[in-house]
Design goal:
Helices cover 8% and strands 49% of the residues. With 140 residues, the protein is mainly beta. The strands form two sheets. Strands 2-1-7-8-9-6-3 form a seven-stranded antiparallel beta sheet. It has a two-stranded antiparallel sheet with strand order 4-5. The longest helix has 11 residues.
Length: 140
């Protein structure tokens, strides 16, 4: 397909001390979105169609997959053990982190952290995050 981009995903996440750490080398896949509530604004005037108006931005969930590595495991484990209630900053770049490429930045909370291992297979991890507050599209 003309114009298709081969993924070189970049994912960075605060560590327990609040410093942004690049975890891209451990992650082969991520899926992220921005969402907005759509409020029904029907007037019940006999029209045949529903109408909607944009509402608040939603705290969408996103998942980042990881190949198991002790460094990535320690990072996610430390974030999982945080009890301060303070969100973590993240950066996500679907094309990598070269200057001028798009990135989504914002705050998130770690919702779940999973390990998947079986005999004779690659050990993987995935983490599900929930966005909180403003999520912003920009560039590296």
């Amino acid at each position: 397909m003309l114009g298709a981009v081969v993924g070189k995903m970049c994912f960075k996440l605060d560590n327990a001390a609040g410093s942004l750490v690049d975890l891209s080398q451990y992650s082969p896949k991520g899926s992220i979105s921005k969402a907005r509530d759509q409020l029904n604004s029907d007037t019940f005037d006999g029209s045949v169609s529903h109408s909607f108006t944009p509402g608040l931005r939603d705290g969408a969930e996103f998942t980042i997959d990881f190949l198991y590595h002790a460094t990535a495991f320690a990072h996610l484990k430390a974030v999982d053990e945080l009890t301060t209630g303070v969100s973590q900053t993240y950066e996500y770049g679907p094309e990598g982190s070269t200057a001028g490429l798009p990135k989504l930045t914002g705050e998130c909370f770690l919702k779940s952290f999973n390990l998947d291992s079986s005999v004779a297979n690659i050990v993987t991890m995935n983490a599900v995050f929930v966005q909180t507050g403003t999520q912003t599209w920009g560039t590296f």
